[in-house]
Amino acid sequence: xxxxxxxxxxxxxxxxxxxxxxxxxxxxxxxxxxxxxxxxxxxxxxxxxxxxxxxxxxxxxxxxxxxxxxxxxxxxxxxxxxxxxxxxxxxxxxxxxxxxxxxxxxxxxxxxxxxxxxxxxxxxxxxxxxxxxxxxxxxxxxxxxxxxxxxxxxxxxxxxxxxxxxxxxxxxxxxxxxxxxxxxxxxxxxxxxxxxxxxxxxxxxxxxxxxxxxxxxxxxxxxxxxxxxxxxxxxxxxxxxxxxxxxxxxxxxxxxxxxxxxxxxxxxxxxxxxxxxxxxxxxxxxxxxxxxxxxxxxxxxxxxxxxxxxxxxxxxxxxxxxxxxxxxxxxxxxxxxxxxxxxxxxxxxxxxxxxxxxxxxxxxxxxxxxxxxxxxxxxxxxxxxxxxxxxxxxxxxxxxxxxxxxxxxxxxxxxxxxxxxxxxxxx
Length: 427
Ligand SMILES: Cc1cc2nc3c(=O)[nH]c(=O)nc-3n(C[C@H](O)[C@H](O)[C@H](O)COP(=O)(O)OP(=O)(O)OC[C@H]3O[C@@H](n4cnc5c(N)ncnc54)[C@H](O)[C@@H]3O)c2cc1C
Prior knowledge:
Blueprint: E1 6-10, H1 14-25, E2 31-35, H2 51-54, H3 67-72, E3 75-78, E4 83-87, E5 92-95, E6 99-102, E7 105-108, E8 112-114, H4 120-123, E9 128-129, H5 134-140, E10 149-153, H6 157-168, E11 172-177, H7 189-201, E12 205-208, E13 212-217, E14 223-228, E15 233-235, E16 238-241, E17 245-247, H8 250-254, E18 263-264, E19 276-278, E20 283-286, E21 293-294, H9 299-313, E22 322-323, E23 325-330, E24 333-339, E25 346-350, E26 360-365, E27 368-375, H10 378-389, H11 396-399, E28 418-419
Parallel strand pairs: 1-2, 1-7, 2-3, 7-19, 9-16, 10-11, 10-16, 11-12, 18-20, 22-28
Antiparallel strand pairs: 4-5, 5-6, 8-17, 13-14, 14-15, 20-21, 23-24, 24-27, 25-26, 26-27
The structure holds flavin-adenine dinucleotide.
């Protein structure tokens, strides 16, 4: 890109905000426009289901960068503005009534939207919530008062984090999960049963392996009861639906850019159109860790992709090839995850998942440590990251012995892999 070039970024979320800032930090002196349909400057979503929901953070704590940075960096930010179409021939996007902007490079950082339940009455009930944006959380928060009954549909990370906050606030919580175990898409059975135990100990009523067969509504059209496929009736004052995310690909698709559960990009995050790039939750990239292509939904993935793309756009091509990592906070527990697991991995556990509140689980493939879940032990996580990055070959007996120091298992050889991204809400 030259000094006269214009980079237009669609989507003012984590990846879009980071990319705009990174471009200036890497001395790009051309024009940058960041366009987002939310009213806020780019903000961090993880606290929405954690500290912000609990009331331990305020709005300004969530900003990805301070709002004055955009002016200082001469980044033109258009908030509350939805991009409607891309004209690839003219290299032009349209928005508002009939406004348009021409680009030299267009970056799609459009993230995703919560997968919705196919039930009109449910979705229009004033006590039913999804969780992606600040305004949704601000509407949910006043409902979470001691003694109210929250039903969470979906036992993934977001559902469980909200369940944990709600229990902390004295709310009676029921979680419904269609799969046989919690977090089934993202972790091993041993971690699922660990979190199952923790949530039950905290007083959550869990229904795994159960689907919703119906909903009842009050005369004022609020959801009042959730009915399960075994006939169980769950009286409900407020409901959170956390059943996954759909990538916002419509804009790309309508423009004829290749899409398949995400916008398809190469390792330089370039789409099937050489002037258009995609980063963050919406991008499906070639993943050397798992083979094939992958779309990850995490902060590390968004920020690392933004950094790599900024570097590429200023003329130093930087293929994205990070080892995913991720975290989740539930009650006082901090889960940290590195690497991507495969169902055939051998599993080595440090600690007692049936009794302890801090354990580590390692995943071994072809004798190499390829992934780890570490609960409430940041030091051990730092070691686990090194073991995974180096694809260390270790003695499973020592790895599983909580009294054996992990650092003594580290090999001396180096690896070319860097760490970034995460496997959490992945597909
Ligand atoms: C409740 C919650 C908790 C989470 N917790 C964690 C966690 O603990 N750890 C972790 O690593 N990750 C977590 N994540 C995931 C993480 O927040 C996402 O991976 C990250 O926000 C993705 O960034 P993004 O920029 O790709 O997308 P987003 O942050 O979703 O930003 C995309 C933006 O683009 C806008 N947009 C879409 N289409 C258009 C258009 N046509 N015109 C203009 N604007 C448009 C969207 O409205 C949105 O503002 C969590 C997510 C949620 C929702």
